[in-house]
Amino acid sequence: MVFRYGTTNSANASVLALSTATTNKVSLLGNGYDALTDYTVPLNTWSHLCTTYNGGNTANFYVNGNFVGSPSFTGTGPLNTISGSFVIGTWTGSGGLPYYWWGDSDDLRVYDIALSGTQITEIYHLGTAYLE
Hints:
Layout: E1 3-6, E2 13-19, E3 25-30, E4 33-40, E5 49-53, E6 59-63, E7 66-69, E8 74-75, E9 85-88, E10 90-92, E11 98-100, H1 117-124
Antiparallel strand pairs: 1-2, 1-9, 2-3, 3-4, 4-8, 5-6, 6-7, 10-11
């Protein structure tokens, strides 16, 4: 789980995650409304992940500045009616069980607009500092 926004109940939260149940595929889910890509994020290497959502029934997913899919949401949704806390790296799922992000994160950003593909590619090409 990269980030969660909403209440502690997973049914009332929006979550950007790498789904371990589906071999590290990028997903945006919450409030009974889920979108899962077919793209598998490689393990043990830095990847730039970006998802945009503009209130419709699809999300756009980008990895390393490249568009990797725009799956339609399944479920009842919508994502944009959730209020609560914004949390990075942890999430309390159904039944009160905690989930934790097992990895490193750098330069996390949240925007109040849906960025264009060009903007996402430009951000990716800004590069990263070397981390040990």
